[in-house]
Amino acid sequence: MSAVAVVAATADGPRVRRGWKLLVGGGLLGLLALFMLVGPLVSGYDPNATDLDARFSGPSAEHWFGTDDLGRDLFTRMAVGGRMTMLIAVGTVALASAIAVPLGLLTGYLGGWVDLAVMRVVDLFFAIPTLLVAIGIVGIFGPSFTTTMLALGLAFWPFYARLVRSAVVGVRDLAYTDAARVIGAGRWRIIRKEIVPALLPLLIVQTTVLLGFAVLDEAGLGFLGLGVQPPDASWGSLLAQSRGFVLSHPWIGVIAGVPILLVVLGINIMADVLRDRLDPQGAST
Amino acid sequence: MSEPLLSIESVSHEFGARRALLPGRRSHLAVDDVSLTIAAGESVALVGESGSGKTTLGRVVAKLLTPTAGTVRVEGRDIGALRGRDQLAYRRTVQMIFQNTQHAFNPRRRIRDILSDPYEIHGLPTPGGRDAALGELLERVGLHPSMLGRYPHQFSGGQRQRIGIARALSLSPRLIVADEPVSALDVSVQAQVLNLFARLRRELGLSLLFISHDLRAVYFLCERIAVLYQGRLVEVAPRERLLESPLHPYSRRLIAAVPGLGERDSAATGLAEATGDAPEAAPDRGESTAAAVAGAEPSPALATGCHYAARCPLHVRLGRPERCLTERPVLRTAAGGSAVACHFAEAAEGTAGTPSPPGSHVSVVSEEVG
């Protein structure tokens, strides 16, 4: 939300009315954030406290989202797991950005053999599905919170780097970077003053989009049992647990799955809003 | 003062030269062995059709491109060797103005920030404060200081070009490379910007390398005109001399193509060339002369002979002398302070007044040259 406020001031294109998108996307994310942050306090349960007398109790006044096979309160676990998932998503995107943005800037601006070498590595990653790369990395280091983050970050950067690179190439050859060179601006000044500002909208939008993918892929890894390990909860691992009872207690799966859907939906709507605001020409990402 | 401010010495630039080592890649010789000097305070025009290499040469002078051969000297120093502090000093001597005013400014930065760049990079002193200096700069190019807070897209093309000029002037250069500075502007605005150039030259004693295909603008602003054809300099002459009695057949055709400027010449070179054969219009291979002259396909890679021979009406009129195809004409001094790269330029001048059968001229020419 704050990102919108910051960039809205610099958006100088025609402002089309997109109020409902902002409302839906922002509202969705706001509600989910509220759920994750204050949910455990409101419910009053310990996310890891078992209560074998109340196993598989459906949604009720006592347990709003019901309980799992060990009688743990699902509302609390979903809220705490959401924190974990979001933390992983943010960490993933931060890691991917930290690798991809400098690399994309460098390869795009310098070109030559640096560009050639890095882009061949990127091509290599392109040939393998993201989740497979992540699984490989988890396989090496063993499943945990940090590995999930590391694995997804390393799986995501090539796509991002290529995107940044092509955007840099587009800006690099514009006359105003030539003008800056003629004025005497050095390489770093041109990158800082001319190229990065032009990339900012793309970076903001892409970061948001990646956040959605990170949530999904965390769930994917978790579902395969390669994510956060019990007793810690994340949305992915909760979804994985629900798989065992999908025939006898299908509502557990629904409760574990729907928030993922909502978060990704909210993030994508917000990415859409950001793109519309930041890019008046309407280029797609 | 005897030393020219700018001297371009046998400069060639070949695009894709390094890649050409790999099979299947073609290189393109955009500028081919060009030498040209500009004295302090002098204004020289670089004219030629699109693709003739004039912009490439301008970018080489502005050190946006490193030529693949030859050297450019400014105030006697080879600009290719300049680094760091010296290069910054060079930037303060030579500035450039761009053709496309829409892309010449970062759309996300205000004019104040854009014009502040040169002051920040070069650490220029601004005794009365930065804003005062910038305001003065804008006034000098005919804009109002209150416009500093605007973004580039809030200006018209002509105003943006004035800002481009202001940006170049901020470093108090001695030479400005102007790459088609008015060709993207409305005709009415062109005149204003050209007047601005003329005024600034008068007031500041600027040298100008004015790249253009607009001979009228060139005539208004420049003392000498250099004509480029496919990367080679074919004629350099004082303004009046070139427009009134061009020596090179290509210059004649170029001038004849401008209505109102070249009536005399269009009568001499023939109506067909003046109208149907305007320099930019005719694809090389489509011409009957090109088809007729065996082995003289117009190609910049052609090392031997005159690269214009295949399109040259004089070549045909003289009975297609062998020399045009075997020997590359060098730029040599001719009458009236001109320099021309044509073996038979004088013959062209001889035929200019009275069209007569080509056969009678061949003997005259061979006497002169041989």
UniProtKB/TrEMBL annotation, chain A:
InterPro entries tied to this protein: BP-dependent_transpt_permease, MetI-like, MetI-like_sf
GO cellular component: plasma membrane
Record membrane topology: Multi-pass membrane protein
A Pfam family this chain is assigned to: BPD_transp_1
Keywords: Cell membrane, Membrane, Transmembrane, Transmembrane helix, Transport
Main localisation: membrane
Lineage top rank: taxon: Bacteria
Segments crossing the lipid bilayer: 22-42, 84-109, 121-141, 147-164, 195-216, 251-271
Record has ATP-binding as a keyword: no
ABC transmembrane type-1 domain location: 82-271
CDD domains reported in the protein's UniProt record: TM_PBP2
UniProt keyword Transport present: yes
Subcellular localization, as worded in the UniProt entry: Cell membrane
A single GO BP: transmembrane transport
Protein family per UniProt: Belongs to the binding-protein-dependent transport system permease family.
Protein name, per record: ABC transporter permease
UniProt lineage: Bacteria, Bacillati, Actinomycetota, Actinomycetes, Jiangellales
UniProtKB/TrEMBL annotation, chain B:
Span of domain ABC transporter: 6-255
Gene3D superfamilies: P-loop containing nucleotide triphosphate hydrolases (3.40.50.300)
Source taxon at top rank: Bacteria
Pfam families to which the protein is assigned, alphabetical: ABC_tran (PF00005), oligo_HPY (PF08352)
One GO-annotated biological process of the protein: transmembrane transport
Alphabetic keyword roster: ATP-binding, Nucleotide-binding, Transport
PROSITE patterns: ABC_TRANSPORTER_1 (PS00211), ABC_TRANSPORTER_2 (PS50893)
SUPFAM superfamilies, alphabetized: P-loop containing nucleoside triphosphate hydrolases (SSF52540)
GO molecular function terms noted in the UniProt entry: ATP binding; ATP hydrolysis activity
Transmembrane segments: none
Region: Disordered, residue numbers: 266-294, 349-370
Keyword Cell membrane in record: no
Annotated SMART domains: AAA
Biased composition (Low complexity): 359-370
Similarity comment: Belongs to the ABC transporter superfamily.
PANTHER family documented for this protein: D,D-DIPEPTIDE TRANSPORT ATP-BINDING PROTEIN DDPF-RELATED, TRANSPORT ATP-BINDING PROTEIN
Protein name per its UniProtKB record: ABC transporter ATP-binding protein
Species: Jiangella ureilytica
